[in-house]
Amino acid sequence: MFCVAPPELEATMNVTKGGLVLFSANSNSSCMELSKKIAEDVNTTIMELLIMVYACKTSCAKSVTGVIPYFPYSKQCKMRKRGSIVSKLLASMMCKAGLTHLITMDLHQKEIQGFFNIPVDNLRASPFLLQYIQEEIPDYRNAVIVAKSPASAKRAQSFAERLRLGIAVIHGEAQDAESDLVDGRHSPPMVRSAAAIHPSLEIPMLIPKEKPPITVVGDVGGRIAIIVDDIIDDVDSFLAAAETLKERGAYKIFVMATHGLLSSDAPRLIEESAIDEVVVTNTIPHEIQKLQCPKIKTVDISMILSEAIRRIHNGESMSYLFRNIGVDD
User: What gap in Å lies between CA 240 and CA 237, rounded to an integer?
Assistant: First the structure.
C-alpha cells in the first residue's frame, strides 16, 4: 500500500516534476514493488498506512490519496449472524485517519464503495485480462468462459460478451467457507420448532439447503475453458471446477483472476492439478509463488494506477479510465 500527498508535506521522498510526493510503507521489501507493490503482512501495513495518512493530515497536507489495489478484508463485507463487517471498519478507520481519496481495483463487492464518505475510484482489471486472452491464447476463439459458481456468472457473462464467446456455469460445488453452515457462529441457537421460542409464535422454519450434484450448464466439450473470478486464494474450488471441466471434455483450462493471494499450498496444488495456466495481476506480489509454480502468469496493471494518480493530482476527469465499463465488469 502506498500514499500520495501534495508538496505541502515536507518529506525526504521522491518528488516528481509536478510536485507530487510518492512514498511507500517499508515494513518489508515487497512494499516497494508496486510502488512498490503491497506488503505480505497485511495488518502491519494497514497500521503503517493509517499512521502515514494521519501524519500527512497533521502536517497540513491539502489532500491524501490512498492507493490500495487489493482492498484487504474485502470478503468480509456482509453481516453474518452477529459478526462484524470488517470492510466497513477499515473504511471508517481510513477516513478518520485523514484519507481524502481512495484508488482501488476490483472490489469484491462494489457496494464497499458506500462504506466510505470520500471519493472511491474502483478501477477494473478486466481490460488487461481480456487483452491477455486475445494475445496469449492463440486459439481463444474456441474457448468458453466459465463461472465456477452461479455467484460468478455476471463476471463470466461480461467476459463472454466482450470476447464474443459462449458461457458455461458450474453448479453444485462443495460448500465454501463463506456459508452460514460453516460460519461457526449460530446466534441465536438453532431450534427444532417455533414452540421452543414462544408458544404463541408460529415462525416458519426454513428447509435446510442441500447442494445438488455438480452439473455444468453449457457445452465445454472440445473447447478451451477459461474460468474467471476476482480473487484466487484457497484453490480447492478452482481445482474441483477444473476436474469437472476435464471430465466434460475441455482440453485446456485457464484461470483468470484480478487478485492472486495464492496462500498456503496453493502453488503446489495448482502445479499438480488439471489447470494449464493461472493468470493474475500484480495487485499482490506473488514472485515466490511463481517460483513454486510455473503455471502462474502475471499481468501488469501499474499503468492504469499511475494514470489514475496523475489525473487525480492534476484535477482531471477520471471518466477516461472507465470507458465502456459496465456495472458487471
Answer: 5
